[in-house]
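Page 47, continued from p. 46.
Same chain as before, 168 aa.
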Amino acid sequence: MNYKADLLAALHSIPWFLELNQEQLERLAGISNICQIKANVEIFPEGGIEDYLYIVLEGQVATEIYVPTRGQVHLFTAEPLDIIGWSSLTPVVRQRTSNARTLEPSRLIAFEAEGLRRLCDEDHHLGYIIMRRLSNVVASRLLTTRLQLLDMIVHPVPANSTAGALLE
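Result:
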């Protein structure tokens, strides 16, 4: 199978895109590529430029943030069909709010953020579908983060603890 056919087959397999027609899927294929990434490889750093949105096809990807006194704190483990880098489509945030690294060999679709924003602006049907799905992702991640923050408040790290060093 050639690369474009493989990419289109991957896009067809994503439930997010079931409402899109062939032309819309081909436009998405034009701004995306498939990435094969080994285990324990950083996909993007916290504070880095928002250049791609990713959908995990295979494998697992951890998102983490650095918290003073706690070190690296795990936020979320993305699995097949999960999205990472969603803030690349937001109008204000233009840098990564977390880092992402593979936990095992992974296969992802990477969408050029600028191209995806442009497609959403040009094709309002495509844009509505993507933004509607993305709003569900954001809402679930905010809930998860809220629960983690509450846990951190209930279980603070003692001032003289080495717990922060253990999480790094």
